[in-house]
Amino acid sequence: LPLLGDCLLNLYPKFEKAGITPQIAFQSEDFCVMADREALRRGFQNLITNALVHGGGGISISQAGNRLLFKNPLCGTERPNPELMFDKFYKSDRARGRGSSGLGLFIVRELMRKMSGDAEAVLEDENLLITLYFP
Fold first, then answer.
1. Which one of 25, 29, 44, 45 has the lowest number of neighbouring Cβ atoms within 10 Å?
2. Which one is predicted more confidently, 62 or 91?
3. Which of 46, 54, 56 is nearest to 92 (CA)?
4. Could you give the C-alpha distances from 24 to 60, 73, 113, 127, in angstroms and in order?
5. Whose CA is closest to 50, among 115, 88, 103, 119?
6. pTM (global) more than 0.85
């Protein structure tokens, strides 16, 4: 997915500053989706930036079937509520601003739904997993 590569490349200085090397694994090199290019770019940027700003270091992106999975370690003791993560203005720790509006994941889900897809979040061990489902 060249668009994902472009998004990762655009954020390279932030990865370098954080000492993070993204891990990418695609089940199929021919993976392709029919989607609004700018909406998908915005969604990818929001997910990657969210991992950089709120994660505990590191991000992996994998593809299986019609899904893309974004996985990053959680930061410290912070445990977001996966059932609320896509709510408008949700922040897992309201005491810390970190310059966040709480709209990033809300926007991701809204954009995916407008493209007949969806997004979900789960916590697994010490990781946040966000899955994008494509039609």
1. 29
2. 62
3. 54
4. 6, 15, 24, 16
5. 103
6. yes
Read off the amino acid at residue 65.
G
How many CB atoms lie under 10 A from the CB of residue 88? 11
Q: What angle do CA 37, 121, 65 make, to 5 degrees?
A: 55
CA distance 73 to 18: 14
* 51-77 CB burial, b ≥16 within 10 A, e <16: bbebbeebbbbbbeeebbebbbebbee
Return the structure tokens found at 111: 């954009």
Looking at residue 14, its amino acid is: K
> To which residue do tokens 């809204």 refer?
110
With a cut of 90, say whether residue 34 has pLDDT above it.
no
| 39: Cα separation from own chain's centroid | 14
Indicate the pLDDT class of residue 103, thresholds 50, 70 and 90: confident
**CA 118, chain centre distance (Å):** 13
The phi and psi torsions of 50 (rounded to 5 degrees) equal -60, -45
